[in-house]
Amino acid sequence: DTEVTQTPKHLVMGMTNKKSLKCEQHMGHRAMYWYKQKAKKPPELMFVYSYEKLSINESVPSRFSPECPNSSLLNLHLHALQPEDSALYLCASSHLTGDNYEQYFGPGTRLTVT
Amino acid sequence: TQLLEQSPQFLSIQEGENLTVYCNSSSVFSSLQWYRQEPGEGPVLLVTVVTGGEVKKLKRLTFQFGDARKDSSLHITAAQPGDTGLYLCAGNAGNNRKLIWGLGTSLAVNP
Question: Parallel, antiparallel, or unpaired: how do β-strands B19-24 and B5-7 relate?
Fold first, then answer.
């Protein structure tokens, strides 16, 4: 099973709202990622978790707060977002050992900030 | 700065035509992945190439990794409307799990 699931599929939120994006994988991967993607552009890395610990933060604004409760789950907490944060948010996972760098992506959450 | 230059950026062809997409870099990659993405969906992994000179085939798609592991190509034979999408190459040049992405090729195959 190479499936990564994400909820919700679509999210509309105001600039004062607090919401969370959720991601789950059951492939035994110990690396999980959050990406932001604008239309017809490549994904931009936001965060990487390795063995449930934050290993990479690509200088993301603090209004985005990641959380990895366990090896299968990844959350992204959103607060006080700006309209320019509207994008497709992608979760991905991969193995951490060996030379296999393949990342498997979820279907994404389409976020609109009003 | 490590870059992965992908070309062409846009491609619109008729059903049945052949096409090739290129990813080039001055950096050596330990592995390179090709993804296909449809609008509003996540990228789907098509193939991973790891050995210089490697050729992999997936039905009508042929992927090649350059001998020096600095470049790769994707060739589609007899394109079909179902091949329409954004094709992305992504490579790993280190061991920190960060992928370096090409800018993507937006392919439209017209019936």
Answer: antiparallel
Question: Are B33 and A107 inside 8 Å of each other by CB?
Answer: no
When scoring A47, A59, A101, A111 by the number of chain B Cβ atoms within 10 A, the one with the most, hence best to mutate, is A101
Q: Which residues pair with A20 in a beta bridge?
A: A77
Per residue in A36-72, pLDDT (tens digit) is 999 989 999 999 999 999 999 999 999 999 999 999 9
Contact, A88 vs A110, CB < 8 A? yes
Listed residue (B21, B19, B20) closest to B4, CA to CA: B21
Hey, are the CB atoms on A48 and B50 less than 8 Å from each other? no
B99 DSSP 8-state letter: P
Q: Count CB-CB contacts under 10 A for residue B43.
A: 29
CB-CB under 8 Å, B33 with A103: yes
Give the CA-trace dihedral at B1, B5, B9, B12, to 10 degrees.
-160
Radius of gyration (C-alpha) of chain B in whole angstroms = 13
Q: Dump pLDDT digits (tens) for A64-109.
A: 999 999 999 999 999 999 999 999 999 999 988 776 678 999 999 9
pLDDT in tens, A20-44: 999 999 999 999 999 999 998 999 9
**Inter-chain residue contact A48 with B41, CB threshold 8 Å:** no
Measured in residues, chain A has a length of 114
Polymer length of chain B: 111
Residue of A nearest to B30 (CA): A99
CA distance B47 to B53: 15
